[in-house]
Amino acid sequence: MEPILVLTHADETGAALTRASLEAVTAGQALAQRLNAPLILGVVAADQAAANALAATGARILAITGPDFAQPRYASDAAALEALCRAASPSIVLAPGSSRFARVAAGVAHRLGGRIDTHITALSGDATLEVTRWFYRQRIEARLHRDGSPWFLLLEPGTNAPFNSTVAAAIVEPVAVALPAIRTTVSGLRAASAGEQTIRPDAKLLFVAGAGWTKKQPDGQVHAAEAGELILSFLSETHASLGSSKSLVDQGSDGQPVLPFLTHMNQIGQTGSTPRHPKGLSTCCHGEEPHVVGWRFVNDRRAISLDPNCGWTRGKADVVYIADAFKVMSKVNELLGSD
Length: 339
Ligand SMILES: Cc1cc2nc3c(=O)[nH]c(=O)nc-3n(C[C@H](O)[C@H](O)[C@H](O)COP(=O)(O)OP(=O)(O)OC[C@H]3O[C@@H](n4cnc5c(N)ncnc54)[C@H](O)[C@@H]3O)c2cc1C
Description:
Elements: E1 4-9, H1 19-35, E2 39-45, E3 60-65, H2 74-88, E4 92-96, H3 99-111, E5 115-124, E6 130-135, E7 140-144, E8 151-155, E9 172-174, E10 205-209, H4 224-238, E11 241-244, H5 246-250, E12 277-283, H6 289-292, E13 298-305, E14 319-322, H7 325-337
Parallel strand pairs: 1-2, 1-4, 2-3, 3-9, 4-8, 5-8, 10-11, 10-12, 12-13, 13-14
Antiparallel strand pairs: 5-6, 6-7
The protein binds flavin-adenine dinucleotide.
Flavin-adenine dinucleotide (FAD) binds at residues 210-212, 215, 217, 245-248, 267-272, 284-286, 288, 290-291, 294, 304-307, 310, 324-326.
């Protein structure tokens, strides 16, 4: 059988592979074994040392390295992936569904006369490959098979365990790439919202803020500024990712008190995102279905709400604390700060 190629890329250090890349490697190993196909790993990084994390795979490693590949950029990344694919001649190409590769993979598939599917959550089938993905806001799960080669599959981050082994000097075959004229110079990164970046897809914990944070509290007053401080302090101590209910992010346009660091990018739910985190903590949120549908891939769900009759208590959370989130988070922050 023709080889399976797994494409990987380095993180912002340039010398280590991203977690999502290492997850794709695990998926590639399992698939190659099941289909009895050779496995080839492709690396795009500033520094060839990034490939050392793959030494223990025993697979053939092709790499394109150098300063031109330090930053994501369509022209250089597309040329690099095309060169890796031409060097490996695979029938199946697995790649992490990262923003870097999601941007170029369809174009590369087109250049190679291949096919592409994205948001893949599972690979199955013994003789032929079947892939699983979700449609309609994670409500419908579909299994697909496609003829046509090479078949590019962008794997959803968080769906495989990352390849984890001791780092050793890898035997790497450098692949030459002819870069087109580069018109784009990457001058730096700027967060989508003002201030600190709060959306962290790789975080172990999703912290969700609901509209209750900016509602009148038992003393008859709104404490939005205090709410903001409590939330940001918790995020800086834990590096959790920040999600929000729709009601809270909509409030800015309704002229109500707002938390300035939240945008619609933070919204979780039917009309928001469906992130993958091992744990989630919802605060001041009612737990209504259009919101909770976005928690489908959060494994351990906890909520803090004043309302003992909220959606979370009706079977949507594993643990619900019927308590004042201001008091609970203030105590939690105090404990985190005392480490
Ligand atoms: C078509 C459609 C799509 C939608 N899509 C989404 C979506 O993608 N995401 C989404 O989130 N919503 C969505 N919604 C809206 C959703 O139905 C809810 O209206 C919304 O999630 C409610 O937000 P909330 O729970 O933060 O606010 P509220 O319903 O106002 O609840 C606030 C909660 O905070 C609690 N509270 C207040 N003070 C405290 C305190 N000190 N301590 C602890 N708890 C406190 C209150 O008891 C209350 O339970 C959608 C609705 C529709 C119709």
